[in-house]
Write a structure and sequence with these properties.
Number of strands: 14
Oligomer: single chain
Radius of gyration: 27 Å
Helix content: 40-55%
Number of helices: 17
Structural class: alpha+beta
Shape: globular
Largest sheet: 5 strands, antiparallel
Strand content: 5-15%
Length: 576
């Protein structure tokens, strides 16, 4: 074709090229298998291989990767539940309940349980996340987008390594990725998986209707809140989705299905702390230790401050720091915005779900005083919402003319091949497993006896006391104290032993009205040795002395790092 001056124009050629490209992509999409397992199965194997390669190459100490400290509280609570007792409960109940069967066999030593914890997350939870990403992608743009999202979900965490400044390598690769891939005992990864599954069920509800899907979505979302109460932020996106879809009935079913997990959370908090943190503000004093502490944060306070306080200055600081350590962060910031527009063209309720989910976490958790890019904690705080960011970015192809409309029609035709034969039974069993059984356990379990677990404030940990780590003291003729103890670590993990001494019993327990006794190690303990040996000789002088030995470990096997994960019962020794 030529214009009035006889010059050739490329517009039709460009248009035909686009049409041809769309036709080829459509043909490719039609050629994809209708049943997802033929592709998702190999993708699971690829994901396992990628995670295994990462686990073998990143710095680690046996099965121990960078943890962060909170893993001690989750596992100590799991161990207490495995013994039929209720611990002190400042954290959520969901992850500890899942770990309780592992703790029943592994005992009170976190390092013994760690291999099973890692296998649980990588073998079971990683595929659940992958299938959920595929399901959501299919709802948005058909099988092609679903398979593409699943494939990129596997590669995206590793691709971002190339986008990070070398100065940030240790914080992203060694500290964040092990958590994001399920190699730690923290609750952030299971939180992310649970919210992903809940989002997939919500979109299924909006597309296919039916109270069963709404009930399952509410049960899974409620369990996510049980894992970490701050995951209640997700409900903003979920509520907006039901409102935008005008599905009030399904929204009510979803809300009612949240109740069993919330009741379990209320029982967990009330019986473990002696109070409901949702209504408790201010501080209290641990009488035993004489240490003034803030109350455990309320559900609303845990969302970012007292009654959801958004700190725009901190958010801006984090964005500025991101630009310092990551390549082309402007593009990273624009991806979810472009994706939101793309999803809006496909489905307003889906856009409300994904946009509300990510925006709520970004604004509220990103405002937390401890969420900083410098420390690497910013990504951990946002981890439960990172799937929403990823899915919004994956939806950008829906903006392409013709291709986007065809993908949207394909997504509208997508239906899950999994049909429940007895939906009411499935809902009942899910409710029992994810909420009712834990609630009954929390009601029936006696509180953990004194001196079985304690807070060690120097590391900010809550650790088991005694059990497999027992100290035997002996006074030598030279009036020295010789301490011996058994090896506490499994083979393949290098640990240190911290020997602590004080002139009074360092472990004190304060009775809590209606709650589990609050036991605390004294901050007056003196570290007299840090050793890899199973024996130590001290010369404290004449008098009565108390000794405690703590097992310390870290992912670098560095003597200057590491949290105490297990402590012996204090023993008294009379010298002279």
């Amino acid at each position: 074709m030529a214009d009035a001056d006889g010059r050739a124009t490329t517009m039709p050629r460009a248009g035909s090229s686009l049409a041809a490209a769309v036709a080829r992509l459509a043909a490719l999409a039609r050629s994809l298998p209708g049943q997802p397992w033929s592709l998702l199965g190999p993708l699971v194997l690829v994901q396992w291989a990628a995670v295994a390669a990462f686990a073998l190459t990143v710095r680690h100490n046996g099965w121990l990767y960078y943890q962060g400290g909170d893993e001690s509280a989750y596992y100590t609570s799991a161990w207490a539940l495995s013994q039929g007792h209720l611990p002190v409960t400042p954290i959520g109940w969901g992850w500890s309940t899942l770990l309780a069967p592992i703790a029943l066999f592994a005992g009170n030593n976190f390092l013994h349980a760690l291999p099973a914890i890692v296998v649980l997350q990588t073998v079971v939870l990683l595929p659940v996340a992958l299938f959920s990403v595929y399901a959501i992608g299919c709802r948005l743009g058909g099988r092609a987008l679903g398979y593409g999202a699943a494939g990129l979900w596997i590669g995206a965490p590793f691709a971002l390594i190339l986008a990070a400044d070398p100065r940030y390598h240790d914080r992203y690769v060694e500290q964040f990725l092990p958590q994001a891939l399920g190699l730690t005992g923290l609750a952030d990864f299971p939180s992310m998986v649970a919210l992903l599954a809940a989002a997939a069920l919500i979109l299924r509800t909006l597309d296919e209707r039916g109270a069963t899907n709404a009930a399952l979505a509410g049960l899974v979302a409620g369990f996510a809140i049980g894992v970490k109460p701050a995951n209640a932020i997700f409900l903003l996106g979920a509520g907006l989705a039901f409102l935008c879809a005008r599905r009030i009935r399904d929204g009510l079913v979803f809300a009612l299905a949240l109740l069993p997990a919330l009741v379990a959370l209320a029982i967990w908090k009330q019986r473990g702390l002696g109070t409901m943190p949702l209504f408790a503000l201010g501080g209290h004093v641990l009488a035993a230790g004489g240490l003034s502490l803030p109350e455990p944060p309320s559900l609303l306070a845990s969302l970012g401050g007292h009654y959801v306080e958004i700190d725009w200055h901190r958010i801006d600081q984090n964005l500025v720091t991101l630009r310092e350590f990551f390549w082309n962060t402007r593009l990273l910031q624009l991806l979810p915005l472009f994706g939101l527009v793309a999803v809006l063209r496909r489905s307003v309720p889906a856009a409300a779900l994904l946009g509300g989910w990510f925006a709520a976490f970004f604004l509220i958790k990103g405002s937390n005083q401890y969420a900083t890019v410098d420390s690497g904690s910013f990504f951990r705080f946002l981890m439960p919402a990172l799937p929403a960011y990823f899915l919004l970015a994956m939806a950008i192809p829906l903006l392409v003319p013709v291709l986007g409309s065809r993908a949207a029609r394909a997504g509208a035709r997508t239906r899950s091949g999994l049909q429940l034969r007895r939906p009411r039974l499935v809902v009942a069993l899910t409710a029992f497993a994810l909420a009712v059984a834990p609630a009954l356990l929390f009601l029936a379990a006696p509180r953990l006896p004194e001196r079985q677990a304690a807070k060690y404030f120097q590391n900010g940990t809550y650790i088991p006391v005694g059990g497999s780590l027992a100290v035997t003291p002996a006074v030598t003729p030279e009036l020295a104290v010789r301490l011996t103890w058994p090896a506490a670590a499994p083979s393949g993990v290098s640990v240190l032993y911290r020997v602590l001494r004080t002139d009074a019993d360092p472990l004190s327990c304060a009775p809590v009205a209606g709650g589990t006794p609050d036991c605390v190690f004294s901050q007056e303990m003196t570290v007299v040795a840090l050793t890899r040996s199973l024996t130590f000789t001290d010369e404290p002088g004449v008098g009565r002395w108390w000794y405690t030995v703590g097992m310390v470990a870290n992912w670098l096997d560095d003597e200057t790092k590491g949290d105490m994960l297990l402590a012996s019962q204090p023993v008294a020794v009379d010298v002279g």
